[in-house]
From TrEMBL:
Belongs to the 5'-nucleotidase family. This is Bifunctional metallophosphatase/5'-nucleotidase. One of its GO terms (biological process) is nucleotide catabolic process. GO terms for molecular function: 5'-nucleotidase activity; nucleotide binding; UDP-sugar diphosphatase activity.
């Protein structure tokens, strides 16, 4: 059944929260149970995912139906604190990608401000996501443990399916047990998606294996049961997409658009052991509260809280002390939009005031000038101006004989994280912070040898395959052209004899010098053809190459314009 749940406000601030709460994400398996004083105890889980270091209350964080911006750590922390009021058994959890691909304010300090923010916010446990590995396992361990100048995370980062290839043992804690007292214990198993190794730079995860999510959940659920912990929640950095169609998986969303769901999380939830009571998911940056039957045919809650701290999930359930388990029929889930009509949390404000001026000093440096907005695409399956501009910048940066002798450059669409906008008040000025927000991963530009046949294979790997279910449109540098004929099937869509460089056909057995970032050079996003490239020359950081290009060609007298589309001819 569906129901709508409003929290009675205990103070003026809570009244404001209740007025702003979007409970359209409420999903219930049955009536509320438990007073918290007898055999049954009320539990509350608050969850976030895909925060990506968005600690600042940016005007760019919006939500459907809301005229004012949403999100920001100052307001997320207040919403969470108000949600905890009156709850004796509450914990705050996360499903990965809390750091990585972060805005400049956090990224310039290696995401230390975000960890401090999450510590102060009361996060008690998180799964790792793929972006926790952006800088490699050693840097992740530093984030967890801290160093001489940084205290690290106050909460455990779980990675049950992140395994040392040599020993077969997990390199991070596989699970965490929350002891609420009075005999109430809940186990949390944390995992990233099995495909993490295909979407992060290989150099930082050498020797690691990312194992199957369902098998891993089975293994550690049974281990928790042997320890007398029957109430089990999986924090999984893999997700789905809410859809308007009735898929047999009942869903609600705070945006009011979902009926069913699709995506990888559906198959995982349908096959994951019934020992797991709730699945908190992420990765797809979607927002949903859904019911997916487990293998025993019992409804099980699957949730996701959008991204960037714009939404949080509240899950309420009854814990039975006799069975030491969650009563599945009592589980209720709802998503709440993080509005800014509540008081800003003072601890979060203090963190922002500490780091803000330092970031501004570094980020306000003028790089060059742009003549107009230069934007990403609506999806990652299309050509877009900013991707073309980055490819041009990387080609220019590596074209000379001593920097690589590049003839062609390719850019992965997922590596373009923000638009380059013509700002009001400072017309056309592009700062270092603007440039960094576009490319925050600190990849290197790499020039390598590929034959014409290997280039064709790379282009064919844009299409969905057994390794990746989505289309990813490589952004190409000026002078390189080809035809993508969507009236054909399979890899024939990439028309082999259409590939050309400056009007001359690409020759299958000729070797070309090609520049990509180090993520693609390692075969990231399942573009394994690039991993076969030889005679590699590493250049500077991709963000520095982009900065140099804007400085060179984006002068005040002649600011940069958005490149025209059409390097790839798409037939549909």
């Amino acid at each position: 059944m569906f129901n709508f749940k409003r929290r009675a406000a205990a103070a003026a601030g809570a009244l404001a929260l209740a007025a702003a709460t979007v409970a359209a994400g409420a999903w219930s398996f049955g009536p509320d149970h438990g007073s918290g004083h007898g055999r049954e105890v009320d539990l509350q889980l608050l969850a976030i995912n895909d925060f990506h270091g968005n600690i600042e209350a940016s005007s760019g964080l919006t939500w459907p139906g809301h005229t004012a911006p949403v999100g920001g750590a100052e307001y997320l922390a207040t919403h969470l604190e108000l949600a905890r009021e009156g709850e004796d058994h509450s914990t705050t959890v996360a499903a990965g990608d809390l750091i990585g691909a972060s805005p400049f304010l956090s990224a310039v300090f290696d995401d230390e401000p975000t960890i401090e923010s999450l510590n102060a916010m009361g996060v008690e446990v998180s799964a790792v996501g793929n972006h926790e590995f952006d800088a490699g396992i050693d840097e992740l361990n530093r984030i967890i443990e801290g160093d001489d100048d940084f205290e690290g995370a106050d909460f455990p980062y779980l990675g049950a399916n992140v395994v040392d290839e040599a020993t077969g043992e997990p390199v991070l804690d596989p699970y965490w047990i929350k002891d609420f007292g009075r005999g109430v214990k809940v186990g949390f198993i944390g995992m990233t998606l099995e495909g993490t190794g295909d979407i992060v730079s290989k150099s930082g995860i050498e020797g690691l294996v990312f194992e199957d999510e369902v098998a891993t959940a089975e293994q550690y659920s049974r281990e928790l049961k042997r320890k007398g912990v029957n109430a089990i929640v999986v924090l999984l950095h893999e997700g789905g997409v809410p859809v308007a169609e009735d898929t047999g998986h009942d869903c609600e969303s705070a945006a009011g658009t979902a009926t069913g769901m699709s995506g990888p999380i559906v198959d995982i939830a349908e096959t994951m052991t019934p020992l797991v009571d709730v699945i908190v998911s992420g990765h797809t940056h979607q927002e949903y509260v859904c019911s997916v039957d487990d293998p025993a045919g019992n409804p099980r809650l699957v949730t996701s809280a959008s991204n960037y701290g714009r939404v949080f999930t509240e899950i309420d359930a009854t814990y039975d002390r006799r069975t030491k388990d969650i009563v599945r029929s009592t589980v209720v889930g709802s998503n709440t939009v993080v509005t800014r009509d509540v008081d800003a949390d003072p601890d979060q404000t203090a963190i922002l005031e500490e780091y803000g001026p330092l970031a501004a000093e570094a980020g306000n440096r003028l790089v060059g000038y742009i003549a107009e907005d230069i934007k990403r695409g609506q999806t990652r399956a299309e050509e877009f101006p900013l991707g073309s501009l980055i490819a041009d910048a990387q080609l220019w940066n590596t074209a000379s004989a001593d920097t690589g002798g590049a003839e062609i450059a390719f850019m992965n669409p997922g590596g373009v994280r923000d638009d380059l906008l013509y700002a009001e008040g400072t017309p056309g000025e592009a700062t270092y912070a603007d440039v960094f927000d576009v490319q925050p991963f600190s990849n290197y530009v790499v020039t390598l040898d590929l034959t014409g046949a290997q280039i064709l294979e790379a282009l064919r790997q844009q299409l969905p395959s057994a390794a990746r279910s989505t289309t990813l449109f490589l952004q190409v540098s000026e002078g390189f052209t080809y035809t993508w004929d969507k009236t054909k099937t399979g890899t024939d869509q990439i028309v082999a004899d259409s590939l050309a460089l400056n009007g001359e056909p690409i020759v299958a057995d000729r070797t070309y010098r090609v520049t990509v970032n180090s993520f693609l050079a390692d075969g990231g996003d399942s573009f394994t053809a690039f991993a076969d490239g030889e005679n590699r020359l590493f250049g500077e950081l991709d963000v520095d190459a982009f900065e140099d290009y804007i400085t060179e060609f984006g002068t005040q007298a002649n600011p940069l314009e958005a490149p025209d589309l059409g390097r790839v001819t798409v037939v549909s």
